[in-house]
Design a protein that fits this description.
By secondary structure, this protein is an alpha+beta fold. It is built from four helices and seven strands. It is globular, with a radius of gyration of 20 Å.
Length: 144
């Protein structure tokens, strides 16, 4: 009898909808870029320009792309998970720039669920109990 009650309780809990938390945070880009891990990993000859930041004349353009990254947020604050995920997205942009032969990623904007987030100098992040997510779109160029 106890076994049947246990199995029934498990079936009900598995059938119940899962409500995952998806909190949208807006954090300063400069704080993310000033972190020691960003300083150590984002210094490979590629420059980054966010939003409407001014940059030199474009000599060659290689198109644009989106970097969507997620990270395990277990045992991290929402902010820590977001900064870590932002760095991962930036590293992907840097790697793609190098692969294309670009020396800069310009017009970088943050995306949340496919929608651009226009609040420079900030970026948007979705944080939950298990993971954080950041999406960035940028254009790869050679700057004179």
């Amino acid at each position: 009898m106890k076994r049947h009650l246990l199995l029934a309780a498990m079936a009900v809990s598995l059938a119940a909808p899962v409500c995952a938390r998806d909190t949208e945070l807006h954090l300063p880009i400069q704080d993310a870029m000033n972190r020691a891990d960003a300083q150590a990993k984002l210094n490979d000859g590629v420059k980054f320009y966010f939003g409407k930041q001014k940059y030199g004349k474009v000599d060659k353009s290689f198109g644009d792309d989106v970097s969507n990254t997620k990270t395990n947020a277990f045992n991290k604050s929402d902010e820590e998970a977001c900064y870590w995920t932002f760095l991962s997205a930036m590293i992907k942009l840097q790697e793609k720039a190098k692969k294309l032969g670009a020396d800069a990623v310009v017009d970088i904007e943050s995306h949340t669920k496919g929608d651009p987030f226009f609040c420079a100098p900030g970026f948007s992040c979705l944080a939950g109990g298990r993971r954080g997510g950041v999406g960035l779109r940028g254009r790869f160029v050679m700057v004179i």
